[in-house]
Amino acid sequence: SVTSEPEHPQNPSEHDLSREAPYVSIELGALDKVQTTEMVGQMLGTERPPHQLSDWVYEHAGGNPLLIEESLSGAVSGRAVTNEDGQWLVDTDRLEKVKATQSVTGIVDSWLIRLDEKELELLRKASILGDTFDVDLLQKLAEVRPEELFILLNTLENENILVPSPENSTKLIFSHKWVRDIIYSAIEKERRAGLHERAVRILESDYPDKEEVTDTLAYHASSANLVDESVKYCTLAAKKALKVQALKTALHYYQWALDILPQGSNHQRPGILEAVGDLYRTLGQYDEALNAYNQIISFRSASPRISLKIGQAHIRKGNKEEALAIFKSAIEAIPEDKNTDRVTVLSELALTYLAFDEYDKAEESAHQALRIAEEIEDKRGLSRVYHVLGLIKSSRENFEKAIEYNLKSLRMKEELNDAKGMASSHNNLGILYWNKRMYDKAIESYAQSLTIMEKVGDIAGVARAHNNIGLVEMQKGSWDDAAAHLRESLNVFERLNDRSVLGQLYMNMGAVADRQGRWQEALSFVEKGSSMFEQVGQQFNLATCLRDAGTLHLRLGNMEEAESRLKRALTLTERLGDPLAQASVLLDLGYFHREAFHWKKALNCLKRSLEISEARGATERLSSIKSLLAEVYTAKGDLENARKSGEEALQLSVEVDDPAQIANTHLALAQLAVAEGDDLVADDQFNRAIQGLSGLGKRYD
Hints:
Blueprint: H1 33-44, H2 51-61, H3 65-77, E1 81-84, E2 87-90, H4 92-96, H5 102-112, H6 117-128, E3 132-134, H7 135-142, H8 146-158, E4 162-164, E5 171-174, H9 177-185, H10 189-206, H11 214-223, H12 227-243, H13 247-260, H14 269-282, H15 286-297, H16 304-317, H17 320-333, H18 339-355, H19 359-375, H20 379-395, H21 399-415, H22 419-435, H23 439-456, H24 459-476, H25 479-496, H26 499-515, H27 519-536, H28 539-555, H29 559-576, H30 579-595, H31 599-616, H32 619-636, H33 639-655, H34 659-676, H35 679-694
InterPro entries: TPR-like_helical_dom_sf (IPR011990), TPR_rpt (IPR019734)
Protein name: Tetratricopeptide repeat protein
TPR repeats: 270-303, 304-337, 343-376, 383-416, 423-456, 543-576
């Protein structure tokens, strides 16, 4: 890897490596990484120092005890590491900017004073290539004969200034990062830029296709102040990163290119800003995406698609009025002869209405788009409109019509040879079959989507397909299969660091672990999900995670934590104006208060949940509420209401064919029979409950 130019307090031209060092060289044995961590911990007075700090110290000090002490001292004095309430915290941005102290410089000088000018000159040129460098590239940059290079490198290795790379036998590493930084900073700036430019030309000659070394070329071109080449290679490095779904790396290179571009570079800046906006949107960072897109609008050459992307970002943020205004304005701005654009924007407008549950307006916009697409025989537009109509029908639970529209969309995409579009249609069909409880058909559709994504090399698409198959396996009760598919998906998205998707995956993994009885593991996943959703501002999903965390804490006996999570979830659902979610949390609070023997509070929560659920027609929730009400009324001695609630709960559970809830209701009725002193009825109800619970595992065999 290579690093950007380090900052040091001294003027590079004033630092003379040949001057006499004021420090005496003391030979100390090098510590390994574990020993370095232990030493850092001892100096900080903790057994577990932050790993980011100990890694940084080891990288810079190379295990040298004197440098370890001075490196840590520099980090503390630079406030890169601080102690708050007995806990050491690391500011990684400040840590990367920590400069070599006078003491560090003196220690390094005491080593370098032993070298002759040829050895120092080779180190200067090696420092140009980074912390790790290729020996062949160094030979070309240094312009020395192979046999002379061998002798010089042998000396530097014996002095433990350079060491072989453990990962690549053709590369060497500076054993202490401070050594490289200090040598590099001592090179006069103009000469340094010239050496970086020479490195660019050597690499361009040695690697005609450039892709293998685009990141290295970007570094050297930037350090040589070659603006055009820097932007070119940063952009190529970003595209290279995107091929392997390294989104954060791609974002880094695009932003680097923007930093290099001089103001007024209107030709390249819009395209790079769009790429930055797209990456932020994919990562769920919608404010940053909007900032990038809005910068493009100021350019005359801005494409109408930027307005669509701004609208889509507003939808993700829940900004209804902003999104609608953008799409309506975009429609008015479309010239009469640009009907394909009109189809696209009307489709987006339909999706906006759909996102905010305005189904009639969504259908109206979609059918306008359909009429235009049919008139101009726009196959791509038709495939898009059929897809949108399928989503609308699905939202209205007209699954047969939704399947019909999605099959039409799939046929269009097959005619267009649109592989990713076909994968998307198969995915949508999987969702629809799932909603119809046709689980095998759903898995078949998801598997077809997965196969296509594998063929086109869409890693994220493959991961999403694994997630969806995992969800169906969860629905079937095949927990091991579900966990396997979800783990495949999680491995990819953890690499991509897509926080929005990670939040969903952690929730799903938590649900699987919960059903397998691994509650502590489930809680860990759910808490991770909460963290992800909080970071990206997805409040609805955060409320769900908080609710799940509350119920898991309850099962683990963590009563204070359970109540805290559930109360926070209730506050959030009330603020979001989501009555059904509010009813769910109130039901969970009812369970909590039952476990805490707070019968009055339990009754109050359950009555509120019942009132909301009845008003909203949430039949499946009604059975759970009334079953729990039967238990609470029994505990309070109100046996008449207990029987009424229990019998209603049983009837509702049978109507919705929920075997787990049927079994739970039989348990509630058994408790009621015990309270009434009817042992025969109690035994019968207990037996029915046990039979129901034992049959759950065979339901999908």
